[in-house]
């Protein structure tokens, strides 16, 4: 699964979350070994037009010892029949949900003997309105339904042993209205009349855990294709791209581009695609993607691209599709034994997503994005509260906390670091051995470590990997010159005013020479080490940016590195930006260096490096670290730094005006337009965007490229206020164009106007989807001018918000609402108002604690260094 945390929603708990466990003996985490499923036969009746679904479920089970009760899973289901069949003899059972997370106790009327038994159920349930369990959405005039079962939401759709350690074959059939399309994990074998309905039957699946089961029903559009045979697979693989009817014209890109990604993955793993077909399905409310075996589900804007797709959209397609398809091996073929090994799935898939995405379309420069994500994760990992990548999970309430930047960003970077240290061939040998040993089964972290060490023939990999996987925190490597030698010292990075527990790592360190190819590398497994300097000039202590660590330098070396910023390769530039700003936030370095870096790196060839310092300066402005009297100087600085480069590139917002430019050039222009229009407040650029937006809304859709659609519409709302916000809103919620709908709703929420924010927060309109509502609140709270208003609204309305939809994509997103807050008083208020409620509900506690600590650290930094920042801006 690829969860886009920054875009995900706000809800924390299900409506049952305030209920208490009614059975003290109930297993609130992993089930006991009293019973084990060996196969499922599920017949679902799913009509998305109706508010409820129903089903019949038979679970072949082996019972360990004679018993009068068993525990399994089901959440908020209305069960009308529960029975155990033993040798054809029925034993009635009473179904009782004993915990809000979906733990169920079956009490039998007579003793169930040890051995084979079939548990049979009839039930019905209510569709969710967001991506959790079995959910439905109305698009245009039609209803559609999808499933999202990871982590523990299969139990909201059917009775089950809903754990990753239970892998069995599934025989699935779906009964629905005639004419609707149905999709599941296996190939459809036939359709038969069932009264006025139709029953779609599917082949028996390979062994799967419940969280990878998929059921999709509705009047979908489909584009069919195949993945040609490869050396690893001798027959073509059936391929389908599926979306709601209004997206029919956006299917072809995925059908055309997916085969190359599949073939690259087959080549890496050394074996064919592990399932007999592949459907890729778009959902308008998914804020990410999910790797259901043979039936991946993606957000519309990830999978469905048209001829005007931006570079960022194509990058996201390549990375996310490669991520999800790599899961077909690492996660689906070999599944974690329990949720504490989730990182094995997501960290590896994150690394593979960027790696294979980069091989798929090298010109899009997708691979460097992994570094940026890894550096972003360091901010979370540097907090005093937190967790290791590999964390024990004792209860169901703790599971969704594992789907965060530590698992994806840190885990992916650590995998990349170890792979680079071992060498690609050795690392791949370990991965292939792991796949062979545990195919269609389960594996633990220890088993992965063993496969990696044996396949790579290097046992040192295990302690090095464990030092990053099994403990929290970010190493900072201080580098001091001693003639032609460098002294390296490791410690744990800490924000200003923070005193985290000391840790030690086995850090693969590579120091590079700026402008050359020389490198000096070592495994820093003690407090310090000495290595040869790669050169007398400027050095980068995280050469290529692949290491999961930050660095510090003496002032002279910092100045030399900053001066070389315009010429640094992408990885070196990103590592430099991260470590420079990290040292500032640790209370070290000089604020003037941040301004110097913005100027020098503005000339960098890599777009993210060219604008990265400017975007961080914009963050300081938003956090109030630049005094109001220095804002004119700040605007002038941003104009001097970035407007000339935009002028040199040229800017025309019309659709396709710059389509012939190289991808990096397109990305740079888009980022520069944002800085020049928003931070420099350049009147000419703003007027150009507003004029294009007016023409676009007037019917000239070629007047505005997708790259500038959201920004131009936002400026229009900023200029015209509530009247324009209402117009855009109405057009958005009646549109089936997923690109326009998303851009328009985002524009309404991000205008920065308090009057628009108050109107939007008070709005009740069923045409706005539940996920869009919470996304709007998050956007309001992250936007200057409306952040405090939205934050106060959340504090006032928390109890109502907390009664929202459950699910891994929607859990623990409260920190996003307060991301723009930056003072100790707010941290104390949020803790006082929400802390007791969050802890009483025992959900998303870690995310909440991280948020409070982040606000406090920001306030500490502002109090200590805002005067210095303001002075540097005036000089700059």
UniProtKB/TrEMBL annotation:
GO MF term set: hydrolase activity
Residues making up the signal peptide according to the UniProt record: 1-19
Note accompanying the cofactor annotation: Binds 1 zinc ion per subunit.
Key words, A-Z: Aminopeptidase, Hydrolase, Metal-binding, Metalloprotease, Protease, Signal, Zinc
InterPro entries given in the database record: Aminopeptidase_N-like_N (IPR045357), Aminopeptidase_N-like_N_sf (IPR042097), ERAP1-like_C_dom (IPR024571), M1_APN-typ (IPR034016), Peptidase_M1 (IPR001930), Peptidase_M1_aminopeptidases (IPR050344), Peptidase_M1_dom (IPR014782), Peptidase_M4/M1_CTD_sf (IPR027268)
Known EC number: 3.4.11.-
Cofactor: Zn(2+)
Family statement: Belongs to the peptidase M1 family.
Protein name (Swiss-Prot/TrEMBL): Aminopeptidase
Domain Aminopeptidase N-like N-terminal: 37-212
Top EC class, one word: hydrolase
Catalyses which reaction(s): Release of an N-terminal amino acid, Xaa-|-Yaa- from a peptide, amide or arylamide. Xaa is preferably Ala, but may be most amino acids including Pro (slow action). When a terminal hydrophobic residue is followed by a prolyl residue, the two may be released as an intact Xaa-Pro dipeptide
UniProt domain ERAP1-like C-terminal: residue ranges: 539-856
Domain Peptidase M1 membrane alanine aminopeptidase: 253-457
